[in-house]
Write a structure and sequence with these properties.
Layout (H helix, E strand, L loop, with lengths): L9 E4 L2 H5 L2 H13 L4 E2 L9 H5 L3 H18 L3 E4 L2 H13 L7 E3 H10 L11 E5 L4 H5 L4 H9 L3 E3 L20 H4 L1 H16 L6 E4 L2 H18 L4 E4 H9 L1
Parallel strand pairs: 1-2, 1-3, 3-4, 5-6, 5-7, 7-8
Helix pairs in contact: 2-12, 6-8, 10-11
GO molecular function, one term: oxidoreductase activity
Pfam families: CCG
Organism: Ignisphaera aggregans
């Protein structure tokens, strides 16, 4: 359940990937918040939620990281946290309590965006003539069960033609983009090959112009793989964050 953000103290948690690699997406999200009259606060020094540490098995370091972050957030006393990173979201609402910490009240940007669209707090007035499909991020989909919101957002954008992937490769059966489980950091060639396989084996046959996803790591991994796929296979395919679509449609 997404609350009424206009009456709440909202902390926008950017996450490491957006801060360090895809900062332009941060600006677009903040623009959307502003247009929807949602005032947000951010941490001056955000740090990491600790997700990579727990994935790598560094439990003590994860605990230290979590304690430091929870102390910072407690000082701000937000009513809700909004983040675009599925890994951060999963850490806040699932992994913190699993490891003995208090869970944080947090939602994904797509959950908030769909509510804003349905309430007409933001207007999607520009038509985007694009044939697209959607890639389910592992953490957002299989782990957190957030499947419908991104699809409803995509379908609400004027001009978009949405083509769903076959059932065996979407939703809870979606294949990883290659960036999950620290593979992108630990074994980059394997991550790249997994992403290329996702594009060539699952997506090219749909005859779409773009892959849409709602995870910064998926965006980066699939974008890099799309360049390789174009050079090797002659496949021309855009990789877009769902934020890009909403931002462009808002004008």
């Amino acid at each position: 359940m997404v609350p009424n953000m206009n009456s709440m103290k909202v902390l926008f948690w950017r996450g490491c990937t957006l801060r360090n690699i895809l900062s332009e997406t941060i600006a677009k999200i903040e623009y959307i918040f502003k247009k929807a009259n949602i005032d947000v606060i951010t941490l001056d020094i955000e740090g990491c939620c600790g997700y990579p540490l727990i994935l790598a098995g560094y439990e003590k370091q994860f605990e230290t990281c979590a304690l430091n972050l929870l102390e910072k957030i407690k000082e701000l006393q937000p009513d809700v946290i909004v983040t675009h990173c599925p890994g951060c979201l999963r850490t806040f609402i699932e992994l913190y309590p699993r490891n003995g910490f208090e869970p944080l009240y947090a939602v994904h940007t797509t959950q908030l965006l769909l509510k804003l669209i349905n309430l007409r707090n933001i207007e999607l007035k520009n038509s985007i003539n694009l044939k697209v499909t959607y890639h389910d991020p592992c953490d957002l989909g299989r782990h957190l069960g957030i499947y419908n919101e991104p699809r409803e957002i995509i379908k609400s954008i004027p001009g978009i033609t949405f083509i769903e992937l076959p059932e065996i490769s979407m939703g809870k059966y979606s294949r990883c983009c290659g960036g999950g489980g620290l593979i992108r950091l630990a074994i980059p060639p394997l991550a790249s090959q997994i992403a290329i396989d996702r594009i060539i084996e699952d997506i090219v046959g749909l005859d779409v112009q773009a892959i849409i996803t709602s995870c910064p790591t998926c965006v980066k991994t699939l974008f890099d793989a799309s360049s390789i796929a174009e050079n090797i296979y002659g496949v021309s395919l855009k990789v877009l964050d769902i934020i890009d679509l909403v931002y462009e449609a808002m004008g």
